[in-house]
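Lecture 7, part B: from sequences to assemblies.

Below are the input chains for today's worked example.
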Amino acid sequence: MEEKKVVLKLDGVSKSFAKVENDEVTHALSAVSATMESGEFISLVGPSGCGKSTILRLVAGLIQPTTGAVTVDGKEIKGPSPERGMVFQKPTLFPWLTVEKNIAFSLKMQDKLKGNEERVEEMIRVIGLEKFRDDYPGQLSGGMAQRVALVRSLINEPDILLLDEPLGALDAFTRMNMQDEILKIWRKRKQLAIMVTHDVDEAIYMGTRVLVMDANPGRIVADIKIEEPFPRDRSSASFVAYRNDILNKLHFGGAKAE
Amino acid sequence: MSKQVETNMEGMTRQQLKELETKEMTPFQRFLEVIIVILPFVCGILAIQEYRLVPNNSTNRNPNTYLVFLILLVAAYVIYGLVAAIKRVRGDKGVYEKLRFKAPLFSALFLLLAGYDYLTLKTGILTQPFVPCLNFVLNAAWNDREMLIECTIHTLWLLFLGYTSGVVLGLITGITCGYSKRCRYWVDPIIKFLGPIPTSTWIPIMMVVAKSLFGGAVFIIALGSWFAVTVASMNGIANVDKDYFEAARTLGATERQLVFRVAIPHAMPSILSGCTQAMSSSCVAIMIAEMLGVKSGLGWYMNWAKSWASYDKMFAALFVICIIFTVVTKSLDAVKRHVLRWQNGAEK
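Predicted structure of the full complex, as structure tokens:
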């Protein structure tokens, strides 16, 4: 299947939020510019408060920029669309729907479910949860739930896949498994994937490009291409070199990161 | 429930796992088990013999009604026991376990019946006819059955009209107000003002204002249910986790779908507990309305029977009220369990 090529542009994007408790305003992003396109796997890494999730939410269309523009192929993003699928840190599966119905949710909302039932089947197969199709999300483990959330947005074959720390709440082993699963899915269709993470290793392991961000105000401080073939070796010399480089850019990581 | 258990022992049912994990019973425990299961039968026979053999303290007309009632109860238990035994032999222990669980209660029920009969009919410690023995009550219910049925239908019809209209209107206002801030702005003061007034307070006003007391009663019952359902569904909708809306929006849901496919299902537990609350307030309101004004229904029947000093009829109506409210509440619970079945899965 030939993938539609898209170019995502952030052009001098700032986003500020009014604080709830007082009259002050937080500047989550300040004049951020970047260009990303299909085939790339972008890792956004940085300390909390650097605005990496804000970038994702802007691209998703859940919020609008204060100044600047976010465009896909030159068209400004006005609101959420299934063409930009998003996976959140919490799986946010609808607890009143079974696994199967959660996966089919998006097609049903767009009135496309009729005739596309086999796509739901395929998604269930991809994550290997055939036996759990009629279970409710409350019965699933964290890893299973996040897999369902992943294919729930993938069923739309989005041009852009937004991953907001999707593995943040998982244990180390499930996490490493899921990293490989996500990469496998991404490499099949090579859509533009943007993933927010706190974990520098994860950013290098998965990304073709790592955008290092810093806080106060939120901005991109480095744009590093990872020129390593997949699958990557976490202990190779070049991997370690990338890690050191990024940790340096983050002021040895420990200083500001959580 | 025969949920597949997620272990390497493929295809095992919950029941099998439970059996595998329960310890073998000692002979004494097994003996005790048999005694417990047989006990309701023994107590039933005891109640029958008590009624038949102990001499009466007051005259007892048509003595066979209560006897038939007791025999039917004992027979029902025996049939239940037989079904459980047959199912158990065939490998399904569910019915048996339920029976075993309830058996002490059934025994207590028969003992209670025997005790009540002893205190009323046999000794007169509870004076007849003010606290009538069950035989009087059953005879009264049977002899006056046409009127009782008519009153029951009337009460149920009133309850149905008032409750459903209140719930439907409550859902509409609750959901719109939960979703739209502007709507809440206007409705909130009404709820704050009307909310603290107990529904029965309206009854005297209704008797003056309303053209028909029946319509007035419907209105009062509806008002109470409307209030309960509005508050519950408004809170339910207003507390929907923002994350679900965001997820649904990125999945292509329209504003309308956010309401019907996300907000309402998410608020369902709250909405349904509002409906249960509305039912109990309706039951209270309907009885008060029937006792004070409406000229039909079980509440009216009770009052009417009291004024004729037919205490047996009064108790008969009380039992009918108990039965219909139990049935109504149970069916509401069944609906709730079915709609909220996704909540049961949370236990792992």
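Note for the exam: Residues 1-7 of chain B have pLDDT under 50 and may be disordered. Keep this in mind when comparing with the next example.
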